[in-house]
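Figure 6 in text form: structure in, sequence out.
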């Protein structure tokens, strides 16, 4: 077996959602490994990875974190779109929709919420 094939066989299996539903004030995800994750809308919105919410690094890598203000509509999920085969893009009640939540990022959020 070539070194490239050996590296590919050791790669982690790709984690993908099988089902995503809005249940009350939570986003529920059933993953292809059999696990489930539940994200309260407020927690999900506050964890938005976009540059407007989380800032972006300058050329030296320093991140200036913006001050983000929220309204009640900020925590209302009006829908979501799938982006490629790797991310979810929520549409929030206040019109915010620039956050791309990769499946890996969502899994990390779920694991950190459990600990």
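Output sequence:
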């Amino acid at each position: 077996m070539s070194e490239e094939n050996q590296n590919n066989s050791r790669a982690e299996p790709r984690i993908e959602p099988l089902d995503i539903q809005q249940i009350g004030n939570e986003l529920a995800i059933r993953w292809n490994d059999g696990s489930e994750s539940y994200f309260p809308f407020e927690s999900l919105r506050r964890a938005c990875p976009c540059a407007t919410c989380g800032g972006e690094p300058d050329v030296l890598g320093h991140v200036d974190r913006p001050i983000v203000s929220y309204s009640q509509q900020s925590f209302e999920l009006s829908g979501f779109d799938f982006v490629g085969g790797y991310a979810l893009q929520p549409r929030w009640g206040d019109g915010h929709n620039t956050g791309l939540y990769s499946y890996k990022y969502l899994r990390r959020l779920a694991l950190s919420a459990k600990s």
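Caption detail: The chain has one domain: 3-110.
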